Amino acid sequence: MKQKTTKPKRVRASFELPRVTKRVGKAILRDERIPLNKVSYSTFTKFSAQPILFKINALNGDVIESTNNVSSIMGRALHEGLAVYFGKSDEHIISTEAEGIEWGLKAATTYLENYNDGFIAYSKRVPNKQEAIECVVKAFNYFVTDADTKWKPNEVLLVEEKIEHQIDVEWNGKQVNLPIPLNGRVDRVIERDGKIIICDPKMVGRFSDVDKIDGAKMIQTAQYYFLVYAHLGREPYSVVFEEIKYTKNADKSPQVRRYEIVIKENQLFFDFYFRLYEDLTKALLGEMVYVPNINDMYDSELAIIAYVHRLDQPDEVAKQMKKHRVDNVTDLLKRKIHKASLSKKILERINTEFAEIKNINYAAMQNHEKIQTKLLEHGIAVHHHSTITGNTVDLYQFEPSMGVKMAKVATYVADIEQVLGVSGVRVLAPIPDTTFIGFEVPKETRTYPKLPRSKGAFMTLVGEDIKGDCLSFDLRKAPHTLVAGAAGSGKSMFLNSLITQLHKQPTREVLTYLIDPKEVELAHFADDKHVKAYVTTPEDTVATLRGLVEEMDRRYAYLKQHGAKQNSELSEPMPYLFTIIDEYADIAQSDKKVVVGTKEVTKMYKDGERTSSVPEYQKAGVVIAELVQRLAQKARAAGIHIVLATQRPSVTIINGDIKANFTTKVVFRTAKEIDSRIVLDERGAEKLKGEGDALFSDARGITRVQTYSL
User: Fold this and answer.
1) Which of 120-129, 206-215, 244-253, 298-307 has the lowest mean pLDDT?
2) How far lies 502's CA from each of 72, 413, 446, 473, in Å?
C-alpha cells in the first residue's frame, strides 16, 4: 500500500497580514498601497532608530545626502578588499592566496583614497583619512592571517552578492511568505561539511559582548537566512559574524573573534524579525506602531525581549501573566529574559591551530612595487612616480596619498630594508623642493667616479649625486666645513681630494695649514709649496692656531685700514688660508700640558717674601677647542677657513658653537645613529654603505653623493 505523504502546512509565520498580501496561484501579490518595493537591513535599522528619515525616504521617495560615519566607510573599504581576496574581482584573476592578499589590500585602500572627504564624518579615534587607511589595513591583515581564515576558493559559493528575492521558503516546519521582497548584500557564503554557512566580517573598535542580546545581529541573521535560502534553494545552517578589531589588543589575544549563530537554535531571532517586519508593513499602511531602537546601548535587551513577547500590549500581558503565574510585568519580564539568555548562547571559537604564515609574494615584484606594497601593509598609500638610477643608489620617487604623515613614513625604513633585502636605505620624506617621498636604495654594484676638472677657482668638487650630476661648493663661502665618518668610510679619500683641489690654485691665492695627529694621513702633502705648516703634535697645533689667530687680528686691522669688510673686497685679496685638521676629536681631548702664559707666585723665605713669574699650563685639548671656536666665529671675513675631520662626533666635541659655524658638512658612514644625529640633526648617516658614500649638507639641504676618487 502506497504511503500517504503530507505537505507542510502553509501558514504565515507569527503574524497575519490579510490586507497586505494574497496568493494567486504561485504568485504572491502585494497590496499596492505599500510605497516600498523592497526591504533591506538598513530599512529595519532606519525604521527602528530614525523613523523620521525612514518616512522621508520610504513614504515620500526623497533621498537626503548626508555624511557617513567613518566606521561605516572603513567597513565598506574592508569589504571591498575581502571581496577581491576571496576571488570576486573583474580586474584580477586570483590564483593564489598571496595574490589575493596583495590585490585585496590595494582594493581596500583605493576605495578609501577615492572616497570624497566631504562625505566622511571622522571621529576622535579616526580623525583623518590616513588614520582610516591604517585601521583598514590592520584589520585586513589581522583577518587574512587569522587561524580560522581558510583561503579555500572551492568552498566559496557567494562573495559580495547583491540579492533580491520574494521570500516564500520554509522556516521551522512552516512556510513563510513575506509580502515585500527582501534585498541585501551577502558578504560571503561557503559550504563546509555539507553545511551552508553565511559569513559576515565586521570592523570593530571593540568586540561585542557575547552574552548581550544584539538586535542588529538578530535582524541580520534572519535577513541573511531568507535571502540565501531563496537564492540557493538550500537552507543555511548558521551565520558567522567575524569581528575584526583594528586596535591592537594589549593582552596579545587574537584580533579576530567569530560569533556563530546556529539558525535552528535561535528561535528568538526570528520571533523578533517577524514582529518587526509586521510593524514595518503596518507603518507603511499608515498605522501607528512602537518599536524598540536596536542601536540603543543600554536598554535594548529589555526592549527587545518585551517587544518579542508583546508585553507592550495589555491583552497579551494579561494572558502571559496568567500562564506564568505572576502578578506583575516585572516578574514576567524576568522570566522572558532568563529564557532568552539560554537561547542566546553563541558558540565560542574552537579552532586552536597555529596561524598559517601568509605572505605576499614579494619575490616576483620590482623594487618600487615592494616598497609600495610594504607601506600599504602599514596603511600608507603611495603611488610610484619615477626611478632615478645613480652610481651608488637608486632613488624611487612616490606620490603620497592624502593624509600621509611624512614623519611616520621615515619610521618604516627597517621594514623597507627587510622587504628589499638590503641595508642602507634612506628615506626622504619629502624629497627637498618636491612633493614626492623618496627612498634611496643602495645598488648591488657601484661605480666610483674619478675626480674631474675643477669648475672654477675655489669650487670644491664633492662627488656625483643620484642623477649623476657633479655636486660642488665654494670652500670660501662654506665658510667652514665639517667632515665626519667612521674608519673606512671614505673620509680620508675626501680630505685628500679636497687638498689636491686647493693646491691646484696659485700659491699667491691659497696657502694651507695641515694638522695631522696620526702623522700618516696628510704626510705626503708636507713638502708641497702650498703648505704653510705641517704639524702633528698637540703643542705644535696650539702654536699654529695661535699664529692663525694673530694673523686674523692683523688682517682685520688691514681690512679696516683699506675700508673693506672682507678679504674678497680688496683690490688685491690676501692669500686664503685653509686649515685642515684631521682627527679633531682626538686632538681636542689631548691631556698634554701646554704653556698658556705666566703667573706671579709669592713665596715666604727667611729674609722675607719673594715674587717670581712661573709658566701657567693648561690641557692642550682645551686650548685647541677654544682657538678653533674663536677662528670659526671670526676668521671667515679675513679669508681664513677651517676644515675639521673626525671619526667620533660626540656632543662634547661637536658642540652647539661648532655646529652653528660649520654649516657645510660632508658626512660619511657613522658608527651609530646618535653620531648621525649629532652632526646632521637627523639619522641616516649610519645607513650609508661606506667607501665614499656620503651625505652632503649645506643651506640647500641634504644630498646623497658618491664622492670622487683620485
Assistant:
1) 298-307
2) 67, 38, 28, 13
Q: How far apart are CA 401 and CA 136, in angstroms?
A: 15
CATH code 3.30.980.40 region(s) in the chain: 370-442
Alpha-carbon span 48 to 388, nearest angstrom: 59
Q: Which CB contacts under 8 angstroms, 24+ apart, belong to 345-349? A: 345/265, 346/210, 346/259, 346/260, 346/261, 347/259, 347/260, 347/262, 348/210, 349/148, 349/254, 349/257, 349/258
* pLDDT tens digits for range 582-614: 999 999 988 888 887 777 777 777 777 777 777
Q: Which set of grid coordinates corresponds to residue 666?
A: 660632508
pLDDT value of position 248: 86
Highest mean pLDDT among 344-358, 408-422, 525-539: 525-539
Cell numbers standing for residue 614: 712661573
Strand partners, 27: 24
Cell numbers linked to 638: 679675513
- Burial of 586 per CB tally in 10 Å (0-12, 13-18, 19+): middle
CB 295 within 8 A of CB 48: yes
298: burial class by Cβ within 10 Å (0-12, 13-18, 19+)?
Answer: exposed
**Quick one: how far is CA 156 from the chain centroid?**
33
Please state, in angstroms and rounded to a whole number, the distance separating the CA atoms of residues 333 and 308: 11
CB neighbours of residue 665 within 10 Å: 23
* Cell 534572519 sits on residue: 222
Q: Which of 440, 423, 422 is nearest to 431 (CA)?
A: 440
Q: In Å, how far are 17, 45, 190 from 170, measured between CA atoms?
A: 18, 25, 21
- Each residue of 18-46: b (16+ CB within 10 Å) or e? eebbeeeeeebebbeebebeebbbebbbb
Give kind and range of the element (H or E) at residue 448. none
459-590+621-707 to CATH, choices 3.40.50.620, 3.30.300.30, 3.90.230.10, 3.40.50.300:
3.40.50.300
Cell of 67: 555624511
As a whole number of angstroms, the distance between CA 57 and CA 47 comes to 10
Is the domain covering 370-442 a CATH 3.40.50.2300 domain?
A: no
Q: How far apart are CA 628 and CA 675, in angstroms?
A: 21
Rounded to whole angstroms, the Cα distance separating 88 from 81 reads 10
Which residue shows C-alpha cell 691659497?
Answer: 510
Q: Which residues lie below 8 Å from residue 639, measured CB to CB, with a gap of 6+?
A: 476, 555, 566, 567, 568, 573, 574, 575, 576, 577
The answer to whether 512 and 578 are in contact (CB under 8 A) is: yes
